[in-house]
Design goal:
Layout: E1 8-16, E2 20-25, E3 28-33, E4 49-54, E5 64-71, E6 74-77, H1 80-92, E7 104-110, E8 116-123, E9 126-135, E10 137-140, E11 143-146, H2 152-166, E12 170-177, E13 184-187, H3 193-205, E14 208-216, E15 221-226, E16 228-229
Parallel strand pairs: 9-12, 11-13, 12-14, 13-16
Antiparallel strand pairs: 1-2, 1-4, 2-3, 4-5, 5-6, 7-8, 8-9, 10-11, 14-15
Helix pairs in contact: 2-3
Length: 232
């Protein structure tokens, strides 16, 4: 996904109330929208380099939105709303080798009254559901992790993906690693052991787990390469 305009570089001061970040732009301090409600563990050190997208919509109170943070010398895409757009682009352009040459892609499709998955795809009359998880946590060199906080919603999605298999669908969960230079991915079981247990159950039940790293710059974020999942 290409950004609509060039990003503006600044220095992070602090994040607060989840949706707000104060940023130093040259001699000015501005408040920007933070499009990520997660913990953003490991990303919020004061002085971190950040990249903002300016918005000219007169109806919006905040004129800037946070898109990228530089942490541990790696650029990290933090806008969770971008994740599905990046995967949609990847599906449409055959960047995900397990999901090439798809006949149909639909976004935000309900599986039941309570749950909708990010994508429903069809290839050779086989329908598959895809759920996407945005990954921004890295605590070890070249290793990305998910989740960065306890996620009961994430566990619910795993259980529902198993239900979808029972109804004849193939199912995929894509861990979209929006962190530069990662080579490995693992479930952060010390953060959410329940999610890890459900991951193992879902894997045994036939859910396909994929981890793909993004190529990140101040101009665009695209799927770059598959990385190895190292959980036992």
């Amino acid at each position: 996904m290409e950004f609509t305009k060039s990003l503006i570089k600044g220095k992070l001061i602090k994040r607060y109330k989840r949706f707000f970040v104060d940023v130093q732009l040259d001699k000015e301090i501005i408040t920007a929208h933070c499009p990520n409600t997660g913990s953003m563990k490991g990303l919020l050190d004061e002085g971190n380099e950040v990249y903002l997208l300016k918005n000219n919509d007169p109806k919006r109170k905040l004129k800037y939105g946070l898109e990228i943070i530089k942490a541990q010398n790696n650029l990290v895409g933090v806008n969770t709303h971008m994740a599905n757009k990046i995967v949609n682009h990847g599906l449409s352009n055959n960047l995900i080798k397990e999901l090439k040459n798809i006949d149909l892609i639909k976004s935000e499709v309900f599986f039941n009254k309570e749950t909708r998955f990010d994508f429903l795809i069809e290839k050779n009359r086989q329908k598959s559901f895809i759920e996407v998880k945005n990954v921004t946590l890295s605590r070890e060199k070249k290793t990305a992790e998910f989740p960065d906080a306890i996620t009961s919603r994430g566990s619910k999605h795993l259980v529902t993906l198993i239900d979808a298999i029972k109804k004849g669908y193939k199912t995929y969960l894509i861990f979209l690693v929006q962190i530069q230079n990662m080579e490995y991915f693992k479930i952060a079981k010390d953060i959410d052991n329940e999610y890890y247990k459900n991951y193992l159950i879902a894997k045994k039940a036939g859910v396909n787990f994929l981890a793909y790293r993004c190529k990140i710059s101040s101009k665009k974020i695209l799927i770059e390469k598959k990385i190895k999942i190292i959980n036992e």
